[in-house]
Design goal:
This protein has 375 residues and is an alpha/beta fold. It has helices at residues 15-25, 41-51, 60-67, 81-90, 105-118, 132-143, 173-176, 180-183, 186-196, 277-285, 295-307, 316-335, 349-352, and strands spanning 6-11, 31-37, 55-57, 71-74, 94-97, 122-124, 149-159, 199-208, 218-225, 230-236, 238-250, 253-259, 268-272, 339-340, 371-372. Helix 5 (105-118) packs antiparallel against helix 12 (316-335) and helix 9 (186-196) crosses helix 12.
């Protein structure tokens, strides 16, 4: 049984902080929510009253000095993540950060240097890795029962109306870092990468077809992996029938999951190839079960890691592979060429800004003439 109670603080008291508080409440035997910070005092008071949070602070620095938490959850807009993470790490406090972890690879590398210098850990919330369905798939793949992966599909087809972007930080490169590639589909293709491993090359298209944003509202990528697997990755905010769909075609079976914002065991399907029915079915039945994807599953894994002194998941190097996938998607789409893993170095415009030198559409949306990139 766990023997330590961790003192947790939340920075930000908006919608995603509520999700964190709800899921932390289910781990009350392992965590104590000791403090929260927000620049909006009314919002902070409402949040702390609801979740019985004793410490209320106007800023992160004051919170760290007074509450002395073991772990800080960053539930703020993406444009604030880097500086807030650096403040926590400088104080020797571990960080669990909502996605996307930073606005750029340069910012994430700065956090990596601070992590090394101060000995605290930085982890990103990618909760779909932690459901038993994904754990089962990884285990069965490792057993050899599925054979090698060949083809994959990863589609985040969501719908966000124009008024969704009335929130000031949404749809802006400087604050949100990107559109559905950065802030929506990232959960699904992070799960894809957790199964298939390192990607090698991306060829992509990005477009702003309909929404009043500076960023894209659609991207499509063709990704190849180290073992030759080919995957299609689509990220959309234009799709009225919303779904999140992943499909993996292995030598001996197809595995699918379809959900929206989180999956359970019943959302997964496996279809053995002829001649492999018994082996595949037996391996699938033997895998983990009973744990839906979601924040609670990842929070439990983070606490498990902290309990034994290990870096909490999802670690910074793992997050970087996912964020590099984002940067390569934009680089390929905007420069109209394939981009290889490792190519976006400090001398690339896409290292410091996801939009690089800027997208090929005007700064102000033009409803009459959608702009897009083509290869």
């Amino acid at each position: 049984m766990p023997g330590r109670t961790f003192r947790v603080a939340l920075v930000g008291a908006g919608n995603i902080a509520t999700v964190h508080a709800q899921n932390l409440a289910g781990l009350a035997d392992r965590v104590e929510l000791v403090a929260a910070a927000d620049i909006d005092q009314d919002r902070l008071d409402t949040f702390c009253d609801r979740w019985n949070v004793p410490g209320r602070f106007p800023d992160l620095e004051t919170l760290l000095a007074a509450a002395r938490p073991d772990l800080v959850h960053l539930c703020t807009p993406p444009g604030l993540h880097k500086q807030q993470a650096l403040v926590c790490l400088d104080a020797g406090v571990d960080v669990l950060c909502e996605k996307p972890p930073t606005l750029s690879l340069a910012e994430l590398d700065e956090i990596a240097r601070a992590q090394t210098a101060h000995g605290a850990s930085f982890a990103t919330v990618f909760q779909h890795r932690f459901g038993s369905g994904a754990a089962r798939l990884r285990a069965v793949l490792a057993s050899g029962a599925l054979g090698r992966p060949l083809v994959a599909v990863c589609h985040t087809l969501w719908y966000r109306p124009d008024d969704y972007f009335a929130v000031p930080w949404r749809g802006k490169w400087e604050i949100e870092g990107g559109g559905p590639t950065m802030g929506h589909g990232i959960h699904q293709f992070d799960l894809l990468l957790s199964v298939l491993g390192d990607w090698q090359e991306i060829t992509a298209v990005a477009a702003r077809l309909a929404r009043p944003t500076a960023t894209e509202d659609l991207s499509c990528a063709l990704a190849t992996f180290a073992d030759g697997t080919v995957a299609t990755v689509v990220n959309s905010l234009l799709s009225p029938r919303e779904t999140s769909y992943l499909r993996f075609d292995f030598e001996h079976a197809t595995v699918e999951v379809e959900h929206l914002y989180g999956y359970g065991d019943d959302d997964w399907r496996i279809h053995p190839a002829p001649g492999h029915e018994d082996e595949v079915a037996a391996a699938w039945r033997a895998g983990p079960s009973g744990r839906p994807s979601g924040h609670a599953a990842q929070f439990a894994a983070v606490l498990d890691a902290l309990e034994v002194g290990s870096p909490p998941p999802v670690t910074l190097p793992q997050s970087r592979g996912t964020l590099e996938f984002v940067a390569a998607t934009y680089a390929s789409a905007f420069e109209r060429r394939p981009v290889r893993r490792g190519e976006i170095t400090a001398d690339s415009p896409f290292y410091r800004r996801m939009q690089g030198g800027g997208p090929p559409w005007p700064a102000a949306p033009t409803a009459a003439l959608p702009q897009e990139t083509t290869l």
